[in-house]
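For the sake of clarity, the format in which proteins appear in this thesis is described at this point. The fold follows as a row of integers, each naming the local backbone shape at the matching residue. One such record is shown here in full, so that the layout can be seen directly:
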Amino acid sequence: MTGYLQREIHTTVGQALKSIPVVVITGMRQTGKTTFLQNDPLFKRYRYVSLDDFATLQTAVSQPEALVNSGDPLCIDEAQKAPELLTAVKRAVDRQRKAGRFVLTGSANFSLLKGMSETLAGRAVYFTLGPLSRREIQGTTYGPFLVKLLRDQKSPAMETARALPPWEIVRGGMPPVASLDDSAAATWFRGFEQTYVERDIRDIARIDDTLGFRTLIKLATLRTGQLLNFSQLARDARLSLATTTRYLQLAETSFLFTKVTPFLRNRSSRLVKSPKLYLTDSGLACHLAGVESLENADEPLRGALFETYALQNISSILQASLPDAQISYWHVQGRHEVDFVLEHKKRCVAVEVKAASRWSESDLVSLTVFLEKTPSCVTGILAYNGIQTARLGKNVWAVPLATVLS
């Protein structure tokens, strides 16, 4: 793969630049934020500065007003490294509230960093640039399947699709990996792991016990797609509960992990209320979990890694097309579970992900129960790794995973 791949978030970011003074684009390191700023036509008229440059960082810390008051629209890369600069941006916006004046990026979630969210309150809109989606890698231009379901309420078309090849999950969507062979990709992931611990985390908070942090991250990776249990993780990692909580919060702040919260809008006394934890990129999850192939159906993490890959693509699609949509999960303890509930304007779609190429009646039970209990749910989708779309009941469909993520 060569050249710049157009990011689908282009449209919603462009709309925000027309009405909001500060646009903040965050996401895990190496997901393409800098490439987006330097290649997308949206930013042609912007002056670009990066706080990865030591001299620029020193200016941002010592003379922030001089940096932001040049008069030109300004892109500031890795802005979280100089909180002083955000205060100067706030003052500049308060003096002259002009749409699209500043674009800030960072490999940390500003809304989770102490003080940063308050600094830009009422002045900024936030977007997350995740790993490349299948749509972006393949250059897909037609409207996303899930958006049609949520916004247009169109029923799935009775069509076939190719099964999703397991190597796509092992590769994931990190842009630097897209053009590498398997050996080079493995080397890249090892380097990313080292850089993440030695650079990104130390930028946010000092961690002296890097071995304990790495151990916790790998143990959490083995639980991707599962309910988050701090006490169990702390025990397995031989860390205190307080340290475990802090480390996972830092991992979430730097976008290594994503939490999916429970859907609690229907009645059940046994609804599970803990969040589920996912790695942001399935390729990185495979690397950290030591999974080299998903061709074998007996791989214990196969289903969880397919689910992780589905989430990163669904998140990308919704961020680009329906940024106000919400993703949650539904779980009635000991009875039923739906992997993802996608909500938009009081309507929702339930999605159950299945790595296998076939389904059975038991795979439909949770979707059917959820539809019965949730009047706002317009469709239940069993996203399986087969090739044929089939109607399985009232508002319940089996749809190839490749189609769902298209």
